[in-house]
Amino acid sequence: MIEARRLHILRAVADHGTVTAAAAALYLTPSAVSQQLAALEQETGHKLVERGARGVRLTAAGEILLTHTNAVLAQLERAEAELAAYSQGEAGTVTLASFATGIGLVVGPALARLAETAPGIRVRVQDAEGDASLPMLLERRIDVAVAVEYRGAPGADDDRISRVPLYSEPFDAVLPVGHRLAAADRVALSELARDTWIGPYPGNPCHDVVVLACEHAGFSPQFEHSSDDFRAVVALAAAGAGVALVPRSALHGADLTAAAVRPVDGAVPARKVFAAVRHGAEAHPLIRPVLDALRAAATG
User: Is residue 254 predicted with pLDDT exceeding 90?
Assistant: First the structure.
């Protein structure tokens, strides 16, 4: 009989690539992870992982078991959801992680809605960058992630998670008021190819959006200044330090007195935001109202 908790460990090792990283994600010791992998290999009668200089990788047998692991764990999530529904659980805590702008735009309004429609559900919110919440979800540190599309993100067909699309927002060009294009109705990105750029650090999903948009316009932006805080990005643009692309909602509350904000001409870069839960958990009586409230807030 294969123990489900050992399947969690196998998936963590596959996701993280090393026993040490998997152990840290699962709050276990590396030796405990190794022992559980050895026990799983004994249960299945197959060698499941191979260790190398750069970490571990799954064997062919391990890959086969991983495919079934995702299905089994999703079914267990469904079982928990049905049992919770059976017991009519209407009170409890849901942990949610979202990036800061998403908290302001949809999470806050969703919490206000839940206070009226499901007062027994308590949502504990954590601030996490748009690319950080999905690993937290898969590692079972949170129940719901409000995330952003980025290169390397689990795709819509990933059988580990279920998605709820929330919204897509455009990026606007932010220029110093003295910039040569500050008076234009719209700004073509190709006209900013020789400018100095300000933007988020590599790894931030918004950095990917900016770089890809500029590449589609025929150039690679030359970043001179970096910040993950868009208020700082706007302040630097207003000071004449360069130009930037900023999600429209992130401009709310920023000091724009010395900056010109212009829509982008042509293909407009956008930030695509979605909520995600572990596959099978979307019907849980505590999680379903949270997803419904997030969807309603995004629609509103």
Answer: no
